[in-house]
Amino acid sequence: MDPAGVEIERKFLVDALPDGLDATRADRIEQGYVAIGADGVEVRVRRRAGTSTLTVKSAPGERRVEEEIPIDDRRFASLWSLSEGRRIGKTRHLVPLGSGLTAELDVYDGPLEGLLTVEVEFPSLAASAAFVPPPWVGREVTGDPRYANQSLALHGLPPGG
Amino acid sequence: MDPAGVEIERKFLVDALPDGLDATRADRIEQGYVAIGADGVEVRVRRRAGTSTLTVKSAPGERRVEEEIPIDDRRFASLWSLSEGRRIGKTRHLVPLGSGLTAELDVYDGPLEGLLTVEVEFPSLAASAAFVPPPWVGREVTGDPRYANQSLALHGLPPGG
To answer: What is the pLDDT of residue A61?
Structure first.
C-alpha cells in the first residue's frame, strides 16, 4: 500500500484450496506482535522470504498511519523475543484472478491450522463493487475484527467462525 | 548502552541547577510513546539534535531488550502523530562530574515544567556504590517507576513528588 494512499481491499474465508496452487509463488510468513497499545496502535515484526520488517500501524480509523521499516536478522530475533504469545504463522500464495487482480491466499499453521483466508486489493471502488469471487472463495469477512491478524494472534480462531 | 551489556545507572532529582550550565552541551529532546503494551513493552520515537530514532524496550526485568532504530524526518512525523497525549519534552545537559563520570541533567518543559532529574551511568557496581553526588543533586529516585519517562508521559508529575 502506498502510505499516502487509500487501500481498497476485501477479505474472505476460503472453502477449499483452488487447483494449481503448487505453481503459484508461496512465501512463509511469521508475524509477532511486539506491542499493542490501549488505543489500538500495533507494532509487529514480520519475516517473509528472508526479509524482516518492523511495522507500526494505527488503529483502524479515518486517518491511517502505517510505517514499515526494514530490519536485519539480529534485530528481528531480538524483537521477536518480545512477541511471545502473540504470534501467527502462515504461508501466503499469490493467486492470479484475471482482470489484473491477485488474491493473497493465506494458509495458517500452528494453533490457527485449518484457517484459510484470501485478500484482494482493488484499484478502485468500482472494481471492488464489480468483483465476482471465484467458486473456491467463501464467506466475506471484510472489516470483521475477529479475522484481523492482531486478533488471531491474541485470541486465536473465532468460535464457530 | 551496549545492547548486550548491563547498564549501571542511578537517577536523582535536582534541587537547583548547577553553575556553569551554559557552557555544557545541551540538546532538546522530544519523546513520544507510540504504543505501550499490556506487558510493559514500550515503543517510542525520539528527536534529539536533528536525529530521530524509534526505540523498542522490554519492560524492566531480568532479560532486557532494547533496540534503537534510526528513522528519517518523514517517518518521525508520521509516528509522532500516533503519540498524542503521551509525550514529553526536555533539554538534556551533559555535565562533567569528574572521575570520568558525566551527569545527564534533564530540564523538563511543557506540562512537566519544574521537574529536573539527573542520571549518572557507572562503569562498575563499585563506582556506583562509591559515588558521592555533588551538592546540587537531591533525592535519589533510582528504580522509582513514577519517574520513568513512560510514566511521566502518561501520568505527569507524581503528586507531592
So the answer is: 66
Cα–Cα distance list, B30 to A31, A106, B35, B111 (Å) = 30, 40, 16, 13
B125-157 core/surface letters (b: 16 or more CB in 10 A; e: else): eeebeeeeeeebbeeebeeeeebebbebbeeeb
Q: Assign 3-class secondary structure to B5-40.
A: CCCCEEEEEECCCCCCHHHCEEEEEEEEEEEECCCC
B83-107: per-residue pLDDT in tens?
Answer: 999 999 999 999 999 889 999 999 9
Residue A33 known to be catalytic = yes
Average pLDDT for A86-104? 94
CA distance B108 to chain A (A): 25
> What is the band of A4 on the pLDDT scale with cuts at 50, 70, 90?
very low
Judged by CB atoms closer than 8 Å, whether chains meet at B37 and A41 is answered as: no
Distance in angstroms (rounded) separating the CA atoms of residues A140 and B92: 53
Give the whole-angstrom CA distance, residue A34 versus residue A57: 12
Q: Tell me the percentage of chain B whose pLDDT exceeds 90.
A: 78
Please check the confidence at residue B61 and state whether its pLDDT lies above 90. no
Q: Which three cell numbers stand for residue A47?
A: 519475516
User: Quick one: pLDDT at residue A24?
Assistant: 85
> What's the CA gap between A117 and A17, in Å, rounded?
10
Give me the residue from A38, A58, A82 closest to B82, CB to CB.
Answer: A58
Q: Model's pTM, two decimal places?
A: 0.85
Residue A76, burial from CB neighbour count under 10 angstroms (0-12, 13-18, 19+): buried
